[in-house]
Amino acid sequence: MMDLRLVRIFVAVVKHGSMTLAARELGLTQSAVSQAVRQLEDALGTVLIDRQRRPVGPTAAGSLLSARGAVLVEDA
Fold first, then answer.
1. DSSP conformation class of 34
2. What is the DSSP letter of 18?
3. Kind and range of the H or E element at 1?
4. Pairing of strands 57-58, 49-50
5. pLDDT at residue 1 above 70?
6. b or e along 45-64 (b: 16 or more beta carbons within 10 Å of the residue's beta carbon)?
7. How many domains does the chain have?
């Protein structure tokens, strides 16, 4: 089962293209955001964020989750 909190954090990272900016928006540390994204990736068994590019961006799987996740977060 997916943790909606992790999805919310992931959606913020994709929105900002930055874990640091997402952390600011959410009132978290950059480390907490990075760990949350890693937990979500581990739970789903796939990489969601391309950390090699700047600004960071979603992988193909991350793009799908971002679109659906944004709706889930908004509805919640």
1. H
2. -
3. none
4. antiparallel
5. no
6. eeebbeeeeeebbbeeebee
7. 1
Q: How far apart are CA 13 and CA 11, in angstroms?
A: 5
CATH code at position 20: 1.10.10.10
What range does the domain containing 64 cover? Answer: 4-75
Residue 16 makes CB contacts below 8 A (sequence gap 6+) with 22, 25, 55
pLDDT single digits (tens) 2-51: 689 999 999 999 999 999 999 999 999 999 999 999 999 999 999 999 99
Whether residue 58 contacts residue 51, with contact meaning beta carbons closer than 8 Å, is answered with no
Chain-centroid distance of CA 30 in Å reads: 12
d(CA 42, CA 47): 8
The whole-angstrom distance between residue 6's C-alpha and the CA centroid of its chain comes to 7
Mean pLDDT along residues 52-58: 91
